[in-house]
């Protein structure tokens, strides 16, 4: 898979999580046509990049914490190192 396709998916996950906390890993996997494992890998990558996406038990989905500042190191820079 292209790093740029993954980067696009990571960015879209951030946007989804900031707009609608009802998206579960299963729903994200179905939307992006990837496995749930791939979504969990993506969420771990976002956590490692200090993007605070957390699971909301009430809505049974992922959300971006309020007032989030994107870290100085961009996701693309982090992905280039791997």
Automatic annotation (TrEMBL):
SUPFAM superfamilies given in the database record: Winged helix' DNA-binding domain
One Pfam entry name: HTH_11
Domain Helix-turn-helix type: 9-63
Protein name per its UniProtKB record: Helix-turn-helix type 11 domain-containing protein
Originating species: marine sediment metagenome
